């Protein structure tokens, strides 16, 4: 179990404990990485998109937006990503001049 959806904080804690207690069963290449820690994120339903940004000297740079395809059986599993050509056509990273705001549907 490398990814799971938990509906409550106790379920999230149980899932984290199972993952951490199962590290020794993972391939050797993954054990060192998982011993560094795990990531717990809030679950949001709907399309999965990523904002690829960077920070240098206190300035934020927008690289691109990408969208991800998820498995039908388990939406925790990403099976592909799309980086649209229009977003890649620019001449490198551009400074972010406006505030980016994510609006969630009600």
How would you characterize this protein structure?
The chain has three helices and four strands. 24% of the residues lie in helices and 27% in strands. The mean pLDDT is 75. The protein is an alpha+beta fold. Strands 1, 2, 3 and 4 form a four-stranded antiparallel β-sheet that branches.
Topology:
Elements: H1 9-21, H2 28-35, E1 48-56, E2 59-70, E3 78-83, H3 85-88, E4 94-95
Antiparallel strand pairs: 1-2, 2-3, 2-4
Identify the notable features of this structure and list them briefly.
alpha+beta, about 110 residues, four-stranded antiparallel beta sheet
Mean pLDDT: 75
Biggest sheet architecture: 4 strands, antiparallel
Quote the distance from N terminus to C terminus: 31 Å
Q: What pattern of helices and strands is seen along the backbone?
A: HHEEEHE
Overall structural class, as computed from helix and strand content, comes to alpha+beta
Shape: extended
Beta strand count = 4
Content of β-strand: 25-35%
Helix coverage percent: 10-25%
The number of helical elements comes to 3
Low-confidence stretches: none
Radius of gyration: 18 Å
Can you summarize this structure?
The protein has 106 residues and is an alpha+beta fold.
């Amino acid at each position: 179990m490398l990814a799971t959806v938990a509906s409550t904080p106790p379920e999230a804690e149980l899932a984290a404990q199972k993952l951490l207690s199962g590290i020794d069963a993972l391939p050797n290449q993954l054990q060192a990485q998982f011993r560094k820690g795990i990531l717990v994120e809030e679950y949001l339903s709907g399309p999965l998109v990523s904002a690829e940004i960077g920070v240098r000297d206190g300035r934020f740079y927008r690289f691109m937006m990408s969208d991800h395809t998820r498995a039908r059986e388990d939406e925790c599993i990403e099976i592909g990503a799309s980086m649209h050509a229009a977003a890649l056509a620019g001449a490198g990273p551009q400074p972010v001049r406006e505030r980016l705001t994510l609006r969630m549907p009600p």
